[in-house]
Specification:
It contains three helices and five strands; from the N terminus they run αααβββββ. It has 172 residues and is of the alpha+beta class. Among the domains are: 31 residues; 74 residues, Nucleic acid-binding proteins (OB fold (Dihydrolipoamide Acetyltransferase, E2P)). It starts with a helix and ends with a strand.
Amino acid sequence: MTDPENTQETPAEPIEQLPPKERRKRDRAAHTGEARPQRTPEQRQAERLEERRRKAARRRSYRAHVKSKRAEAPAAPAAEEAPALHPEVPKGNRKVRQGVVVSNKADKTITVRIDMARRHRMYDKVVRSSGTLHAHDERNDANIGDTVRVIESRPLSRTKRWRLVEILERAR
């Protein structure tokens, strides 16, 4: 015969799902362990150095791992390349930005407004902001209101560190 009390399974208690930060906070508040023994400044310094060595070793191994993975992965097709002012200089990873021309009054220079939208870390609200940068326009092609793509370059003047790559959309 079966026991009626054993046939019914008791529902498992729901596990409390907390964000990691809250979980750490709760664990720290609940901790009632003993304090560590007092150490001399030399002992503390030795522990810090040992911790730094350990972290450096982990960083080295992680970076070697990432480097090997990057070498295995197929190379992505290169983006549209701007004409190089100095072709013998290694390019590296240049930043590319898209924005709207707000001024073209200066000769061979445009002012571009870059609009950024990013999610706030704590409040998850989309925060919009904008910044302006000056870009080199060799042929004075861009007009106010045009949507353009600019690429990072060497300093061309006190404020110019970008170069016009292409005009994506003309203003009406």
